[in-house]
Automatic annotation (TrEMBL):
Top-level division of the source organism's lineage: Bacteria
Assembly with partners or alone: Homotetramer.
Protein name, per record: Tyrosine phenol-lyase
GO biological process, any: tyrosine metabolic process
Similarity remark: Belongs to the beta-eliminating lyase family.
Amino acid sequence: MKKYIAEPFKIKAVEPIAMTTKQQRIAAIKEAGYNTFLLKSKDVYIDLLTDSGTSAMSDNQWAGLMIGDEAYAGSKNFYNLEAAVRNVYGFKYVVPTHQGRGAENLLSQIMIKKGDYVPGNMYFTTTRLHQELNGGTFVDVIIDEAHNSELEVPFKGDVDLNKFQRLIDQVGPEKIPYICVAVTVNLAGGQPVSMKNLKEVKELASKYGIKIMFDATRCVENAFYIKEREDGYQDKSIAAILKEMMSYADGCTMSGKKDCLVNIGGFLAMNDEDLYLQASQLVVVYEGMPSYGGLAGRDMEAMARGIYESIDEDYIKHRIYQVRYLGDRLIENGVPVVRPIGGHAVFLDAKKFLPHVPQDNFPAQALAAELYIHSGVRSMERGIVSAGRDKEGKNYYPKLELVRLTIPRRVYTYSHMDVVAEACIDLYQQRDSIKGLKITYEPPVLRFFTSRFEPLE
């Protein structure tokens, strides 16, 4: 029997959650246009929509809120955050933002010009949009194995160096401002990147003067997988592995709402002084002073403390093992999921779950809606709806059509994971009755947030 680590914390406060009837859930999802983003949280039993900003903060972080220095400029909490980023990640300069997409906006405006190409190890929704809005074209350079949900590959997030080299040869290095490397890769199923690959990317990029910018949102989870799976790292600390990882990047965007264990906040970090000065000027336009960037002092203090807590060995081991527990239960019962299980979520393979529903009828969206109706569990579509449309208005057709069961940090117990597993297993046994959807409303960008649907007859 597999062993899973118990919670390395005890519960000090509780929040009641609603138990609804199936009829109530049918009414709620219909009102929400069969989009789980549009459900009201009061109607959700177990909320696995996202791990972004949904984590539970520690007593130490809550204590930090009480020493918030709400000065408009030069808050002491900013300097605590700056010190945490320097100590844990190793970057010289830090510009706080309200969340990760604020950092993406700054980075894209500063570095991308019209006609540029930005390679990355699989797209992410807001990242690609910011790149496109600034005239860039995203190019996927992840290894092919990442697009196959069944392959058991330890580092599915790795950059394919041949693809990267081909892009350099085709467009020229002067058209590539940076390569965006996500650690881990969300839309591949939370898959990590190996240290070996990061070193190789650094070597190739440096040869052509191309910068490397990490999407570091879940970098601690990536460090755990390097420790677990890569030769030579088993006896190294998470802190040491993380510091080495970051040494191969010129900077990073960070959504503090994930691995920094806070409900709001992010930052752009870098080693280049010129980029820092540009970011410091631009952040004033969109976020606020360079010493607060859209955040209250108390939020910066909580993030600074969360950064240190995130590299605790017991914390990150429990984090990964809890997600793995849910994934293992589903695999043992034949439910198709992305393998190996990633760091922050279990991803149901909707194409294999609902092979009778064509991708144009949004199988992942339909499955997420049906899971909510069946159990009150809220999940998220990560397929054709999330992929959106190209510049000509045509649908992107991602090879992976997924439903993400995203586990908030330090929020739910193994018993909650059992409820989720049993709901998915039960629904899989009834899968032939699930029908596709059609769009009734679609916004021009980031349609997965607010699109509305209705069931096909």
